[in-house]
Design goal:
Blueprint: H1 2-10, H2 16-30, H3 37-49, E1 52-53, H4 54-59, H5 69-81, E2 85-88, E3 93-96, E4 106-111, E5 117-120, H6 123-135, E6 144-149, H7 154-157
Parallel strand pairs: 4-6
Antiparallel strand pairs: 1-3, 2-3, 4-5
The structure holds zinc ion.
Length: about 160
């Protein structure tokens, strides 16, 4: 229920969130698909809350749709195919693609101890890397870069 109240509060017309949701609905419609309530719910949570795992998303499904892992994975697959979200492979978490710059690459630094994930703004450097990959004959490049390290938390820096 708390998720539903978050939704109600954050979807004022003209807000950034509502703008992103409208863009997502348009992308789905152009692909001949529909953002069902569960798809929209996942996309909205990833936009608002940042990187989440499939399990976190299933837990928030009560009251929206059947809270079962296969539902979650099918939904995530759908959103990935449309480019609305991206998967952070190293931590098995998902993040919403900012649709204002839908084709822009995204870079993340991920703590390998605690999984803390932060987005890095380094688009010019990423463009160079992707250009090189294309020069090497690669196509359909996954435009998400993940860099692993240890965050500043003492629990993580002391580990190992
Ligand atoms: Zn950490």
């Amino acid at each position: 229920m708390s998720d539903l109240s978050i939704m109600a509060k954050e979807t004022k017309p003209g807000s950034d969130l509502e703008d992103q949701l409208n863009r997502a609905r348009n992308i789905a419609r152009k692909a001949g698909k529909t953002l069902t309530p569960v798809r929209e719910h996942f996309y909205r949570r990833l936009l608002v809350e940042g990187p989440l795992g499939a399990y976190d998303l299933v837990e928030g499904l009560n009251g929206v749709a059947s809270a079962k892992p296969p539902t979650a994975y099918r939904t995530l697959e759908f959103l990935l195919e449309l480019g609305l979200i991206r998967k952070l492979q190293s931590v098995s978490k998902y993040i919403a693609t900012p649709l204002t710059k839908s084709s822009s690459p995204m870079a993340f630094v991920v703590c390998r101890e605690c999984g803390l994930t932060e987005q890095l703004d380094c688009a010019p450097y990423q463009a160079i890397i992707f250009d090189r990959a294309k020069q090497n004959g690669f196509d359909q490049i996954d435009s998400t870069i993940e860099i692993s390290g240890l965050c500043g938390d003492p629990h993580c820096t002391d580990a190992g």
